[in-house]
Amino acid sequence: MEWKQLLCDDRIRSYRGKGSGDLRTEFEKDYHRIIQSASFRRLQDKTQVFPLDKSDFIRTRLTHSLEVSSYGKSLGQNIAQNIIKVIGDESFLPEYAADICDILQCAGLLHDIGNPPFGHFGETVIRDWFTKNLPELTYRGRRLTEVLTPQMLADFYQFEGNTQALRVVTKLHYLVDEHGMNLTKALLGTMIKYPVSSLEINKKSGDIKTKKMGYFYADREIFTELQESLGTNGSRHPLSYILEAADDIAYLTADIEDAFKKGCISYMELAQELERAEDAAAQKGIAPESIEEYHRMAARLTDKYEKALKNGEDSPEMYAVQNWIVQVQGHLIASATAGFTGNYEAIMAGTHTKELLFGTPGELMAQTLGDIAYRYAFISKPILKLEIAAENILNFLLESFVRAVIYYDTETKLTGVQEKLIALISENYRTIYKRYSEGKSETEKLYLRLLLVTDDICGMTDSYAKRLYQELSGQWQG
């Protein structure tokens, strides 16, 4: 892969402002399109970890995305300098440094823009609902599993918010036409973390690019165009590795901080968990130098606590955790930078199969933080209760809208309730459905109608989904 092609600033719908005096690069224009969009603003009412939380200090998808954007830019700066000064790749021109920073800053803002309400649990509910119900639903006397193609079915069985993000920015966000935000191809390519279809997922392959799907059958032409324009041809865009690392660094550290502030884990429990992880790593035969680096970083938590006590801080535990988290973030940024630099040739050849933190000094810390967050936050009783409520909400909405759309846009007359449900679906999304269903087969139209439902639900905020459920199920209290 070549940087000149990878940083393609063309758009799917060609557009170049002429004579306007606009000095921005195309990637800088992308940034302004994103932050001014309603799709981006909706992230302020979407779950990161704690659904429907009323605390002003707990992260939402919006604040998480801003953090990922920031880390992405920082990583881009570090890595660009390493490509120029350490690796010495002469094909990487000096001006490319600013370009990749702008692209990564934008990609960080967009990486979760397709997520449904209620976080990653919402994705699970959607997958589970379709897996259970598609075999039971019928269209003109045939089961949907007999009507739809294997890839169409797999798109719903393997549903992913990351994949939905590509639909949002290329079609669903109606800026001026059916091309969505019409962003640069380099940015779109960076967003595709998994350049495979739903039929090509292979979680056991050892290659991270096949862990999940990266595009829907409905968006296959866009995916193909991007691959050809960028020269990736089935490989990950190099900047996708950096975006993924920025996301990992953001949530691994933020989840611990949020869990602490919510009272899910105490300072003492965190310190003990870090110590236990170090002992376990030694027993597993992890390299001594990796454990030593981990020990130095873990020990700083205690150092911060003792400093807080000495300075008479009102909350030494809070001071210690917050300041320690900042140091961990810097540690992980340095590790991800080393991961990209050390695997540069394989990344550019499209053969690198691991995330950037793999095999770096920060890998053990990243694994430990993920494990702690899972046990203390993700499976805590408050979260489990909220997820049960979220499942009821999404199951009800999916049941109602899917049954309504099966015969929408056909000669079969809908019931009065079904017509009302269709009217509740975003007019923009219905317009996009009409545009892209023109001339398609009856099977593909049915598939696109089912996507219309997931499009609409993924566009909902947590609060709107909850309120709509209450209104439609007769539970609304005013």
Question: What does this protein structure show overall?
Answer:
This protein is an all-alpha fold and about 475 residues long. It folds into 3 domains: about 5-240, Hypothetical protein af1432, CATH 1.10.3210.10; about 265-380; about 385-470, no CATH class. It contains 22 helices and 2 strands. The protein has helices at about 5, 25-35, 40, 60-85, 95-110, 120-135, 145, 150-155, 160-170, 185-190, 220-230, 240-260, 265-285, 290-310, 315-340, 345-350, 365-380, 380-405, 415-425, 425-435, 440-460, 460-470; strands at about 140, 140-145. A two-stranded antiparallel ribbon has the order 1-2. β1 and β2 (about 140-145) form a beta hairpin. α4 (about 60-85) packs across α15. The longest helix is centred in the N-terminal third of the chain and has 27 residues, at about 60-85. The protein starts with a helix and ends in a 6-residue tail after the last helix. The mean pLDDT is about 90.
Residue stretches low in confidence (pLDDT < 50, at least 5 long) are: none
Output the structural class. mainly alpha
Q: Briefly, what CATH class of the largest domain?
A: Mainly Alpha
Relative strand content: under 5%
Q: Kindly state the mean pLDDT as a whole number?
A: 92
